[in-house]
Specification:
Length: 105
């Protein structure tokens, strides 16, 4: 489980600049938060790893998302294939909805 030591309230303008650093087997990976969403009565977070230039790699990591009693965010690895598929399907639906909405504008 990844946890954040300190959370500072941010404005909507600052929210796009929030980054999460994951400690993976291959080392630390800085990620951009794409969205936090609900699927099957659970919250998930979609993260995009960033390259050394700070640009998105095109990959997306999905994790379980929760906040503790103090409101501090926590993310957990999804180790169940069925649960991962549910989260991934919902994320794909959201991408499709966003693409459709952008075509209407």
């Amino acid at each position: 489980m990844a946890t954040f030591e300190k959370v500072t309230p941010v404005t909507e303008d600052e929210a796009d600049d929030i980054r999460v650093t994951l400690e993976l087997d291959e080392g630390e990976v800085e990620c951009e938060i794409l969205t936090i969403f609900e699927a099957n009565n659970r919250d998930y977070i979609a993260l995009m790893p960033l390259d050394k230039k700070g640009e998105g790699t095109g990959d997306v990591y999905l994790y379980r998302y929760a906040e503790d009693e103090e409101g501090l965010p926590q993310i957990d690895f999804i180790d169940n294939d069925e649960e991962y598929e549910i989260a991934a399907d919902r994320f794909d639906e959201m991408l499709d909805e966003d693409e459709f909405d952008s075509m209407e504008d």
